[in-house]
Fold this sequence. Notes:
Layout: H1 4-20, H2 24-30, H3 34-37, H4 61-73, H5 75-96, E1 101-111, E2 114-127, H6 132-198, H7 204-238, H8 247-250, H9 262-265, H10 276-297, E3 302-313, E4 325-334, H11 342-370, H12 380-383, H13 385-406
Antiparallel strand pairs: 1-2, 2-3, 3-4
Amino acid sequence: MASTPQRLLISLAVCMVTVACTPASIRDTATPTSSTIQIQPSNALARKPIQAAWWQTFHDPLMTALIQEALQASPDIKTAQASLRAARAQRAIAGASLLPSLSSGASARRSGGNDSYGANLDASWEADIFGGNRLADKASAADLQATQASLEDVKASLAAEVASSYVNLRLAQARLAVSRQSLASRDETVRLIGLKQQAGLASGLETDQANLSLGQTQAQIPALINSVTQSQHALAILTGKEPGALNTRLAAAKPIPTAGGQLLNNIPANAIRQRPDIRAAEYKVTAAGLRVGEAKANLYPSFNLGGSLSLSSLSLADLLDTGSIARSLAASISAPLFDGGRLKQQVEAKDAAREQAVASYQKSGIRGVTGRSKQLFHPAIATRTPTVTGAKCRIGTQRRTSGATQL
């Protein structure tokens, strides 16, 4: 005749077989699978970010160095890295729920002149029949991916801000150089017109117009110098330094960095969905959907298996004798009967959180479409450089015209 623990194990096995034979439609209704929750077209957990170091396409060593310094000094990145560590720990905790647990203990006692010794080894395992633990494990994996993507987003945003400030600095320096050249040219024009007026070849109106143009150019220079200083200070703060610490490194004017069409040509059609912020939002949708399934699984019974091995003896030397060994096996089934609707409301709360995650994902997608180029390159590189070049050409033309007039 089978012992009581054996009968419990047999009963539990029968329950497992019964659940396994339940029609698929009932099981699917009870516990959504990950395939019905995850975003199918994206293959989010396998996708990798593109253009991780896009700033290298500008071939500007100083800009690259400043971005690297900013990435190392940023408190936001350190915070995101700590969050990533926590997410990895939570991922390990969730995975441990799928494995058996094992614990041990030992005791020694003296009572009334008698000694007694004992040791025990306990094992337990929850049979994850309705998939709640598996869904929790997958949700933690999605959370980990979301945290990783958020870290990448912080890095990308910081790199874009440094690159933008650097480009603004070079633009301001180029404009300042052009204005100073223009100032010298207009000053020369005023001198030549003054000579012509003395010779009776120019009117007072021409002299007034030349002086007005000279004054307008002089008025532009302080604002441009201030713009250069502000960009230098912004770069110092972004790299974790005091304002003015980079003035020496950034004092010399250099060409405005440009990547031309190379960077845009390397962006695939689905680049919007590969942005770190959008990938993070998508992972959060995946995790929220999986947690709905986890909450639904808690509405159903849980099955546990346990066993223990105990040793007890009046003598430490006899503790390992076969006569002092006691073994036990146990199986248990627990099911919620009445909890005031707590479990159902947990499902409702998780479903509401899923809807929030979907809305945030949609918002991120809209924001990504409108700002696709901002974090990948600075439009001023392509649009403002011709302006500076055109100004230089006009100065050259003006000088040639003034020279011809003098002759």
